TrEMBL record:
Pfam families: Abhydrolase_6, Hydrolase_4. This is Alpha/beta fold hydrolase. Residues 28-145 form the Serine aminopeptidase S33 domain. Keywords: Hydrolase. It comes from Mesorhizobium album. Belongs to the AB hydrolase superfamily. FUS2 hydrolase family. The lineage of its organism: Bacteria, Pseudomonadati, Pseudomonadota, Alphaproteobacteria, Hyphomicrobiales. Residues 311-566 form the AB hydrolase-1 domain. It comes from the Bacteria. One of its GO terms (molecular function) is hydrolase activity.
């Protein structure tokens, strides 16, 4: 795999591994927003399978999304997204010499792929994964997510930073214009207008009959329809989800059956540097070896010298390196505007990076600190001998322990840490939480069907009971974690090892910023190791505490992300070689959010 830049976006090209290169490739048009976070790893694994079959595959981000330049406010987003698929086809043909492609569309990509294929003679097939029944249905789903996740958070913040130009769904912003353009899409009508193409459609729910694709009889082309088994478990949450291996195998086999016999022509490699230039930043996709390869994006100030030590962003749980609600991309580019370089990465086993070695603990393996140090090595080779680390949730755990073991770390930012020292009680909690999230996804699908036949009363009562059960389980797990932590040999000897680790870190001169959302479970974790009033934490010179009101664990509200970005800029301080402190970004939040 290698990173490439084209049409103001970043893509990841998985080249065929054989010597006899196929004349057909695959372009993968992914999802948007929260669905992209949940499915990005799934699509990376699909691309790997295709490359093993000597089929080059290209993943990429739509304009204004993921790692691409721009944001939600650019006019004509839907047309630009469709054009982005066409640009990906052209780039794959250029780099790999393929004559045509099979288009894979997942969710939003399934809506757009038939439109992108219109008028082209180099699309040889369509694989549509969980396509919404229509653009209108897709917008209804976005609206439902917005009301379920974003609206309650907005009501708690008394309308602070209210987004009136469209909708926020799990923090991802979509303009009114884009919503209206999405509502007009009909992938079945678009597919009916194409020349006869082989198609595989895996539906979320009851499979479509071939003749339900408007205007086409079952004999007009090879049309295969089936259910997307395991879809709810894949899409429940980017950290708790389960990859449906059988679906991966089925998709890879179908594409291999339609790979064609032609041999690739001579490739015409891109002759420009693979850099993405923004108004105040320059970004470059990077791969950090040795295996397992770490995938990331290096962002640096454009046209100015760095003003402070760079930072490395680690994954928040299983969230890919673009960040929840695209928050890591926003933070990196705002830091660049203030003269601070950064590297956002996927640790092995997450996002677009290689699979981790067998036997690794999911997210909380202590050996992962060596992967973080590999990223620090890369930054040192790029000319940055010292760095800061930024981690949310599980990323905070990895940042903390990497900082303890690597003296090149000068600043440490921990956002909503749920664990400082791993033990069996945390493993139990994670297992219970993942079971809850995946079962909730299945119940949600069943509740939707029940709603159609019996009305909304039953799902509502089920939701109340589920929340009550979750609260009871949560309290029990917190009691177990506290008990196990107190029974640890270090605790029995009165050593308070986590507190000692923090004191040693700050004694070395590392500046620590500890950020928590109001009411977050991380507060219990901090109290477990530093006292209920955090009195022992407050006595450690070098630790700064920040509390974010009206924010959730993943910083979904826009104002909370802005507050953290402002703090990151301030936390960078002045480098020892004399560079001046960068001026903070003006935060679109109340002053109380910036008070320690």
């Amino acid at each position: 795999m290698r990173g490439i830049v084209f049409a103001d976006t970043i893509g990841w090209l998985h080249e065929g591994k054989g010597t006899a290169r196929r004349g057909r490739g695959v372009v993968i048009a992914g999802a948007h927003g929260h669905e992209d976070l949940c499915s990005r790893r799934f699509l990376r694994l699909l691309a790997d399978k295709l490359a093993e079959n000597d089929l080059p595959a290209l993943q990429f981000d739509y304009p204004g999304c993921g790692n691409a330049a721009g944001d939600h406010s650019t006019p004509g987003q839907v047309q630009r997204w469709t054009g982005g698929i066409g640009a990906a086809i052209d780039r794959l043909k250029q780099d790999c010499g393929v004559a045509d492609v099979i288009l894979v569309g997942f969710r939003l990509g399934a809506l757009l792929a038939p439109l992108a294929a219109a008028g082209r003679d180099d699309v040889a097939g369509l694989l549509l994964l969980a396509p919404p029944s229509s653009g209108k249905a897709y917008v209804r789903e976005i609206t439902a997510m917005s009301r379920m996740i974003d609206a309650p958070l907005a009501s708690r913040s008394a309308g602070e930073g209210l987004f009136t130009e469209g909708r926020e769904a799990a923090g991802f912003r979509i303009s009114h214009e884009t919503l209206a353009d999405l509502s007009a899409l009909d992938w079945r009508h678009a597919a009916a207008s194409l020349p006869s193409l082989p198609m595989l459609v895996l539906a979320n729910g009851k499979p479509l009959a071939a003749d339900e694709i408007q205007g086409r009889g079952a004999g007009a082309a090879e049309i295969t329809t089936a259910e997307f088994d395991g879809y709810p478990l894949l899409m429940c949450d980017p950290t708790a989800n389960r990859i449906p291996a059988a679906v991966l195998d089925r998709c890879a086999a179908w594409i291999a059956d339609h790979a064609g016999e032609a041999i690739a022509r001579k490739a015409m490699p891109h002759d420009a540097s693979e850099t993405l230039d923004g108004p105040h930043y320059t970004e470059k996709p990077v791969l950090i070896g040795p295996e397992p390869m770490i995938c990331g994006v290096f962002c640096r100030p454009r046209g100015r010298q760095a003003a402070a030590e760079p930072v490395i962003f680690l994954n928040a749980g299983g969230v890919p390196h673009v960040g929840w609600a695209r928050g890591t991309v926003e933070a990196a580019r705002d830091l660049a505007a203030e003269g601070v370089a950064s590297l956002r990465i996927d640790l092995p086993g997450l996002g677009l990076s290689d699979q981790a070695e067998d036997g690794r603990l999911f997210l909380y393996d202590g050996r992962t600190r060596h992967d973080v140090s590999r990223a620090i090595d890369w930054m040192e080779r790029a000319g940055y001998p010292a760095v800061g680390l930024v981690g949310t949730c599980a990323g905070a755990f990895q940042a903390f322990h990497a900082a303890r073991n690597d003296r090149r770390v000068r600043t440490l930012t921990m956002i909503n840490p749920l664990c400082f020292a791993w033990n069996s009680s945390y493993a139990l909690e994670m297992a219970v939480w993942k079971t809850y999230e995946t079962s909730k996804a299945v119940l949600g699908q069943n509740a939707a069907a029940m709603h159609e036949s019996r009305g909304p009363a039953a799902p509502t009562w089920r939701g109340i009971a589920s929340r009550h059960a979750r609260l009871v389980v949560r309290r029990g797990l917190e009691a177990i974690k506290s008990t196990v932590s107190m029974l640890h040999p270090a605790a029995l000897l009165g050593q308070r090892r986590v507190e000692r680790w923090m004191r040693d870190l700050c004694g070395r001169g590392v500046r620590v910023l500890l950020v928590t959302s109001e009411g977050d479970l991380s507060l219990k974790e901090i109290a477990r190791h530093f006292g209920s009033e955090e009195e022992r934490l407050g006595s450690i010179r070098g630790v700064t505490r920040v509390s974010l009101p009206n924010a959730d664990h993943t910083l979904t509200p826009y104002h909370s992300r802005r507050a953290v970005i402002a703090r990151l800029i301030d936390h960078g301080g002045i480098r020892r070689d004399g560079y001046a402190r960068a001026e903070p970004v003006r935060a679109t939040t109340s002053p109380s959010l910036l008070a320690p």
